[in-house]
Amino acid sequence: MATRLYAAIAQAVAAAMRSAGVRPGSEPVLLSGHSQGGLVATRLAADPAFRRRFRVTSVLTAGSPVSRVDVPKDVRVLSLEHRSDLVPRLDQKADPDTVNRVRVVLDPSPLPGCAPESVIGVHDSDRYARSAAQQLARGSVRDPQLVQWYLDNDGFLRGRTTTYDFLIRRPPERP
After folding, report:
1. Do residues 72 and 54 lie in contact, with contact meaning Cβ atoms separated by under 8 Å?
2. Residues forming beta bridges with residue 82, ordered by sequence position
3. How much is the pLDDT for 1?
């Protein structure tokens, strides 16, 4: 993943964390993303250079093909996938069977304006958020790995969140 665009993304994420007051290495970090954003978050969590700067402890993905990313054992990953979403399977590999990775397959919840089983509709980020809220409500989860993921990440899940938007452009080609 050593592309110039990846380097720009890593810089933007680091800038967002600095803007939020995250001191490098001093506090736990949860990275999250939908689709390609989840793939980028997972790759950042696996990147030794990024991990030297920030103490990534968890990753949350929705609709992301992350099975091929080798995540360190001390990073807990929760991957949400809609049953009929093709995107999480684009990497064509089964999820690793490790204690630090939890894959949850959800039924796509209805979302106004989305066809029930359209390829685009089941991949919609708002639909993932709704499905997770309805099917993974706190207190209703029984799977021990998922319960542990919630316990490990309680501070992130109950805390205040801030969103930063960055425009990232690929640097011009060098002659």
Report:
1. no
2. 106
3. 47
